[in-house]
Amino acid sequence: MASQGSLGAVSSPMVILAPKTKTKKKHFVQQKVKVLRASSDPVLGVFMWGVNHSISELNQVPVPVMLLPDDFKANTKIKVNNHLFNKENLPGHFKFKEYCPQVFRNLRERFGIEDLDYQVSVTRSPPVRGGDGPGEGLLLTSYDGTLVIKQISSEDVEDMHNILSEYHQHIVKCHGSTLLPQFLGMYRVTVESEDTYFMVMRNMFSHRLVVHRKYDLKGSLVSREASEKEKVKELPTYKDVDFRNDMQKVHVSEEQKEKFMEKLNRDVEFLVKLKIMDYSLLLGIHDVARAEREEEELEEPCMEEEAEPENGLTTAPAAGSYGTSPEGIAGYLNSCKPLGPGEFDPYIDVYALKSVPEAPQREVYFMGLIDVLTQYNAKKRAAHAAKTVKHGAGAEISTVHPEQYAKRFREFIANIFA
């Protein structure tokens, strides 16, 4: 069995896993389920194999009574050489590393995601490629649309390690009820001596309700407008100035607004404490009437589950992938719980809110905080000084101190509601 990484010294009876071990060379053992059809992309093939392998291995390891400090530094590694199985999908040599497996297992549980469902959603069919965002690596969604798989940098991995303990404590305190990204797993894939890093998160948008309009809101009006190049995209990301100009509002009940702002304030306080800034509220809007019209235009009603652009991505469930067991995060919905237009399961679409009956049109809003790894460091301070010189000290630039950023952000978001 592959080593399960560094977990604690021998002093505690709760330490379940061995101390950090050196990478073992391992010949490939055939899996019970052949999970890969990603031969066009060896990195993706190894990623899917690795997640499948790591979850299967983790299932053999008892859940620790409590997480220890070493769990937040732990990792598991596997090196595969000259394997013979599944050669059409996997390169001959590769390495796979999972960061802090026990911590992410614990987070998945707190977010109500079972490991086997997570495993199926990531590995049953290849994730669907989206576009490369500005300054970002690859962005993918799982085949069933419930997860986002984001290529990140080695610096992001380091930033994540820096906040993981505090992030975990925050999730424990708020019982998993948060607008922050739900971080579910972090991995490194090495193919031909090149490292690629991935973060898996819950999709803030729906796996079944198409997002028709999308905003990235920071609470700043300086240079916060979608470019002409952005506006011609199929699903452009609009910004604060566009939101104002569109006279856009979020029409939810007073009670929903209060609950939302309570979550937002708690999460933002957490980010201030960690000196994090430059985060955004991602807002996606599903227009129920438009979705119904689009569905009627389709010739066959059974095409409802076909690929539709969401989150700037397309989610295309593989043929026959719904309603089989194990189901994946959203798989059981089709067979057991048919949903009508504009309806969603709040246990899956955790970032969704419905518009009130008296709203101008029936809408579903998806709102969550994104880009939460940017700490206020020397680089940011320099950017702030440069922008202050350019725009003047009073201008609403996005690069300001974390406390100022949070105050302005909260005020702006409080005013997006009707």
TrEMBL record:
Location relative to the cell: Cytoplasm; Endoplasmic reticulum
Primary location recorded for the protein, binned into one broad class: cytoplasm
Keyword rRNA-binding applies: no
Domain PIPK: 39-417
This enzyme's EC code(s): 2.7.1.149
Gene3D superfamilies: 2-Layer Sandwich (3.30.810.10), Phosphatidylinositol Phosphate Kinase II Beta (3.30.800.10)
Catalytic activity as recorded in UniProt: 1,2-dihexadecanoyl-sn-glycero-3-phospho-(1D-myo-inositol-5-phosphate) + ATP = 1,2-dihexadecanoyl-sn-glycero-3-phospho-(1D-myo-inositol-4,5-bisphosphate) + ADP + H(+); a 1,2-diacyl-sn-glycero-3-phospho-(1D-myo-inositol-5-phosphate) + ATP = a 1,2-diacyl-sn-glycero-3-phospho-(1D-myo-inositol-4,5-bisphosphate) + ADP + H(+); 1,2-dihexadecanoyl-sn-glycero-3-phospho-(1D-myo-inositol-5-phosphate) + GTP = 1,2-dihexadecanoyl-sn-glycero-3-phospho-(1D-myo-inositol-4,5-bisphosphate) + GDP + H(+)
Superkingdom, natural source: Eukaryota
Any Pfam family matching the protein: PIP5K
GO molecular function terms attached to this record: 1-phosphatidylinositol-4-phosphate 5-kinase activity; 1-phosphatidylinositol-5-phosphate 4-kinase activity; ATP binding
Region spans: Disordered: 294-320
Alphabetic keyword roster: ATP-binding, Cytoplasm, Endoplasmic reticulum, Kinase, Lipid metabolism, Nucleotide-binding, Transferase
Acidic residues: bias regions: 294-309
SUPFAM superfamilies documented for this protein: SAICAR synthase-like
One of the protein's GO biological processes: regulation of autophagy
Name by which UniProt lists this protein: Phosphatidylinositol 5-phosphate 4-kinase type-2 gamma
